[in-house]
Specification:
two-stranded antiparallel sheet; about 55% helix; 14 strands; single chain; 13 helices
Length: about 400
Amino acid sequence: MLRDYFLVAFNNLRRRKLRSWLTVIGIIIGISAIVSLTLVAQGTENAVNAAFEEFGTDVILVQGGATFSRPTPGEYGLENKDIRFFESFGEVDIVIPYVYDTQEVEYKDEKKYPIVYAIDTELWGEFLGRTNFEVEKGRNLQKGETGAIVIGWKLNQDYFEKKVDLKSRIKVSGKTFKVVGIYERVGNDADDTSIAMAIEDARKVFAPPGKVTGAQMIVKDGVNIEEFVKELEEEYEDYRGDKNFIMSTSTAILEQINNILGIIQYVIVGIASIALLVGAVGIANTMYMSVMERTKEIGIMKSIGATNRAILTIFLIESAFFGIVGGIIGCIVGIIMAIGAKLAIEFFSPGLPFLILIDPKVIGGALLFSAVAGIISGILPARSASKMNPVDALRHE
């Protein structure tokens, strides 16, 4: 019996192919938007998580000179005594102080103002092991080396009119340095135009003696970093005598970012759902038109014994078809769009570990959502058809 209902429903849909496909397109647009945007949002979250995994969950970041926001380049809020204070804690394994600033850089009589950052070359390997900087050409700075710099990918490519390459001589704030290495492309201009040098050179050129912008503290294995950072923050505030600093863990920063991304994802899905709502209205409109056009047909079916339940079932099968088929095609289109977005992001930002995972929950939820939307949209038209009086239906012109 149910098989007969499906045959009648599909025959009716086949007779109105153009209208059926136009109705399905509305659902396809809504579902593809939901699936693609959700997968891209999850990909963004995956990229952030991957970056922080590389950075490490055993790191405490501290920067001075800013109470409500991150210090700007050229702000030096920590002193050597602060670094010694952090090193005095048994829970701390390594402290890596660093400086960064915007500096005048001159090459072949052309001047630019990129970011220049510097750390102690003794700690260079530990620092780079927690960043996304990898040398593409040449080498990194060696321990105790001065007078040398490593430049970003874009600074090597086209930052200056004349190409900067290995062994080129560049002036930073009037002092000449030799390029010994070039980093791989990171994907953002700030990093790809940056210059790395030894902190000893930075102090000769732009950094004030005895001061740094911030520091990375790497805690020892087994230390509860969240509890330790609370204790450290309180003691450091007493030590400084003010709250003019920012101290946070990489895990806390990651949690904040993921919370923000989660809110954005809900907003995106909410906006995309509007398209699905429009598609559902399209289904209802199509079903009502179908009921009006097939009034006499419904009368004939009821006059030869079709029950109200049979008529209701046939029309619900038709509306469910719109939702299910639109959902399946929409999921396929959404996945393709998400993969396309991934390829575009990797092309323009090759250093970003953007990972699209086809989440079965997202696909299953989208299919269920579209099927339910199709059935709900068809309930009222189907009920209207099932309640028709067969005599009045047969008289309908």
